Amino acid sequence: MYGDGVDTREQLIESARELLWERGYVGTSPKAIQQRAGAGQGSMYHHFRGKPDLALAAIRRSADEMRARAEAEFAGTGTALDRITAYLGRERAALRGCPVGRLTQDPDVMADPELRAPVEETFTRVTEQLAALVAEGSANGELDPRLDPVATATALVAVLQGGYVLARAAGSADVYARAVDGALGLLAPHVRKEG
Amino acid sequence: MYGDGVDTREQLIESARELLWERGYVGTSPKAIQQRAGAGQGSMYHHFRGKPDLALAAIRRSADEMRARAEAEFAGTGTALDRITAYLGRERAALRGCPVGRLTQDPDVMADPELRAPVEETFTRVTEQLAALVAEGSANGELDPRLDPVATATALVAVLQGGYVLARAAGSADVYARAVDGALGLLAPHVRKEG
């Protein structure tokens, strides 16, 4: 069994992430995580102090992934507007919802400062970076400079998070795509055509 | 104890609504509802077949309220744009989140067609009516007719739902207000100034 520790720890984190995404914190029992990970109770308590400790590792990883993906898009090639559009238009698993955003509906996650911190930091960071991109677009003449960067970025991130809510309510990913189309339509007249 | 039946039924529904809003379906036990309602187990099962039956009454009532409030705003006085702005700008308990939208994160609600129906119908109806208002504004020259009514309405409803998510993540209602400001800023150049 030597060398198995890392794999088990890893499987516990990945199983916790999936269950938090599917069922939320309150709906996820330690037993369910152990079963999905194929790990025993002793093994879970060897690697983690308990459910909050394991959930923290899982939430941090989901938050880090979300942030890293957005950062890669924001830092990509193309104009500021290209990168904003790529971020908004990226294909997402709309019906599964956002693994980080859904945690805001988990009262036990929101009530625990340690569990909430990665959720808060991720949305703050993504919104700040998108605002910087809007400001960049305004500064270089791609976007109307009257557009408030922070408010605009907040609205755009909200469209995506709300798009998940509406898609799940309708049972249709099309509704998510429609929300993004609507946001791009609202943005259109702010774009300054060159040449 | 005569005449107490209606009150108890009513208290059970209201308690279930509050708990579904605060803790979601999976986090709400029949016992917790009974305790909050000050009702016994026998009394709950006299009025309802069980938790799903009581939850359905609670969800229907929250959905009906949300729809009725939006309909009143959409049918209010003022131009189409006034009414769109009033709907977006209405003060909401941002940190509590949307009592209907939050149910989309409840796997047991989403998996039960009967429980999901009021959630789906409410968002469909509110989006349709907002789209009709955008179309009205386009038709009477208040709004740029190039604005796609359905996509725009979907994006605007999504901003509100996502605004709740971001406000809860940040622990600040200001973020919700900022998302609405951003949406109004995005809408601004689509407004056709008269005279």
TrEMBL record, chains A, B:
Known DNA-binding region: 29-48
Pfam families: TetR_C_13, TetR_N
Signal peptide feature range: none
MF terms in GO: DNA binding
Entry keywords, A to Z: DNA-binding, Transcription, Transcription regulation
Residue intervals of the HTH tetR-type domain: 6-66
SUPFAM superfamilies: Homeodomain-like, Tetracyclin repressor-like, C-terminal domain
Protein name: TetR/AcrR family transcriptional regulator
The species this protein was found in: Saccharothrix syringae
